[in-house]
Structures are given as structure tokens and as C-alpha cells.
Amino acid sequence: MKTGITFDDVLLVPKKSSVNSRKNISVKTRLTKNIVLNNPIVSSNMDTVTESEMAIEMARNGGIGIIHRFNSVEEQVKMVEEVKRAEGLIIPNPYCVNLDASLEEIKSLMKAKKVHSLLVSGTGKLQGIITSRDIRFYKNGNTAQEIMTPREKLIVGKPGISFEEARELLDKNRIEKLPLVDSENNIKGLITSKDILNQINRPHASLDTHGRLLVGAAIGVKDYIVRAESLVAADVDVLIIDIAHGHSDLAINTLKTLKEKFEVDIIVGNVATSEGTEALIRAGADGVKVGVGPGSICITRIVTGSGVPQLTAILNCALVAKKFNVPIIADGGVRTSGDITKALAAGASTVMLGSVLAGTDESPGELLTKDGRRVKIIRGMAGYGANMSKRERENVRSEVFDIVPEGVEGMVPYRGSVKDIIKQLVGGLQSGISYCGSTNIIEMQANAEFIRVTGSGKRESGSHDVSKI
Fold it and tell me: Taking the model in full, what pTM does it have?
């Protein structure tokens, strides 16, 4: 009988390092065969972890967020669009209003789309621009034509303008918006000074080829075509086929169908064996999610008796994935930056975090107070709460005992901004890479040497023989 081990069962053996500062250590890695991230942290596709606000902050700080699927198609698409429009060098399809649009319509659109400016168009041609500053002194009844700054007073750019040219035009003319038009005055995009500053101030953000933030979204294995089609149309960067038992005909057939229909990277999971990893890769997976039962709110191993301790699962799956040059995601069981280091050293390219990020400002849900402490709720997507919410939304009547939960609901302490959490985790990872005598993740995977530890070794690894302040 084999023995399975997890993160607390091992330590990485320190190696000679030539690193002078951990700031010189790269944590750049691959999410899929085609997508590169500036750090290996992925926020989980749970409804108490990742919606648009979390996804935006994850990408701004070098990782990526995967928007959950426990919502309507329209809601999920809206979240993806919010991420893609949060910033970018060029907004390819800026929001527009017609010349006769009323002030009420203008205010309503700005509020709904969370923007501060609208272009005014007529048959696709630029007629003017309206900003939130322009509408302050107008009353209901005024139209866009009366409110806007007209075309003849606007500074515009040409399609294909470079970053430096756009920056120079904005700076020279002291303007905040630069509409892009072709030789016939057709609207081709919009550049804002805010987005220029974002590009300068956040050089490590995860961006697509248009300078927009990267974002992923989860789909299921039932009624998935419409959801996937809508998400791809919204320019989602990666889809995750979200199924508890990924080594199944359901997952494989879903993957094959999607790869035939859409040009988009697809990650599939979860699996915990080399056989499961190979089956998904041969079916076309661009990335594989590894982990059956290690999550803090997951009880799959208790309910089903199935699972593999997470470090063993990563080691076994990584051996196969490496042969096919396909990255794997370590999903679940990660509590500290040391666990991230161990997961990556074992062969994972990224780690998916749930409970570690669930208590942040950017996670969905309200702050509660429990025993004098501020907390947030986290729940497993296979638990009672999530399944009942889904069935209510789909108007499916069911009894409580119709659901066999593989997840629980719990509370996590409030942790502040996700930016600060990522900074701490990445800093710990960089130190961990240096302890392995390496300067990046690939080197660490080649140099890593694990050593098993006893119960006494585990106790020795934490603080001991003192009273914590």
C-alpha cells in the first residue's frame, strides 16, 4: 500500500544561494500552455472568494482571478466585462450614446457601466464626448448634443497609436480622454490618462495583448455551451471546467466539445492522479487542476472515502504533465507561503487559494462580528448552501436530503486588502526559492530536495517554548 504525504509532512532542504536580495528572484510562471502570470497565485472560483472586484485586484498584482459559476450567465459575463474594462491601454469598444440621449439616460448608463465618460456618436462616427464633470450643472431634459464637448474641440488619436505617442498627446494637451478615430471619423477606441498611469505604476500586472487585465471564469459540465459561448464573446482569457471528479467521461467529453468550438485556453479539474492528468491532457487541456479533498471547506474525503494527500498528488500529476509541457495548478491545502513554495517545488506552476483570500476586502460578502472578531463567511461549492442557492436560482425544487454535501460553511478572519496578502505570500515564496539555491521557479523545481519530518519536527517548525505577544 502506498503512503500519501502533504505539506506538513516535509520540508525543503536548504541549498547554497548566490542571491543578494529576494527582490532579484523571479516568480513569473505559466497558468496554461499559452498564458503567463507574473506571480503564481490564482484566486479560487468560489462564490465567497472571486467576483469582479477580487479578479481585478488579483490581475493588478500579477496573478489572476477565476470568477465562479454559481450565478446566471448574464451575471458572470458582466463580471468578466468589468474586469476587462477596469483598465487597458486601449478600450476597443467604448460606451457611446446618441446625440438625442437624455441626461437621465446618460447618468443611468454611467452608473450601470461604472464609467465616468461616454462618447457621443452618430452612425458610428464621433460627434463629441461627455464626462461626469460635464453633467454636473445640467438638468433633466438636456440632451447629449447640448451637454457634450463637440468633435471640433476634441484632441483625437489614430488607431494603432503607440503608448508613448498617446502619453505625449494626453500630457501635452492636459486632457484625460483620447478618442481614437480613423480617417473617416469612425470611432475605433478610447485611451484614458488613468490607464496610461496604471501601465506605468503597475508593471507587474497580468495583462492581455490589448493591455487589459487577465481574467478567467468557471463553467460546469451541464448546459455549458451557452455559458462558454457568452464568456468567450466577452473576451475571457481562460475557462475552467469545474468538476469535483475531473477524471471522468463528463469532464473529458465537455473538454473535447469546447476545444472543437472555441479558440480559448481551457483548464480542467480536479484530479489527483497521473492517470487523470494524462487523460485530460490527451483530450486537449491547456492546464490541469490538481487536488481532491485538501481544501479547508472540503469534506470529499470524509463523504466519499476518496482522495490523495495533496503533495503526493502534485508530485504524481506533475511527472506526467511535464512530459506534455502542460502546467498544473495546485488547488487546496495551501495555508502559508511555505506551502506555496513546497507545491511549486513539487512541480505545480501555480496555486489556487480559497480560504487565504476569502477574508479580504475584495472577497464577496459582508463583514460580520463573531466573539468580538471581524470575520467573513466561506463555503464549499459542493456544500448545502451553495447547492440550495443554485437550485433556487434555477427554480429547481428539492428536499434537503436530495443533496449529499461535499463541502461545509465556515468563517475566516478578516484580513484586510488582498494586495497586502499577495505581497506577504510572494515575499515568502521568493525567500523560499532562495533557500533552495535558485533564482526562479523552474530552477527551484530542478534543485528541490524534500525531507520527511516527524511529529516532533512539525512542532519544532513552529514557534514554541514562548508565550506569543
Answer: 0.87
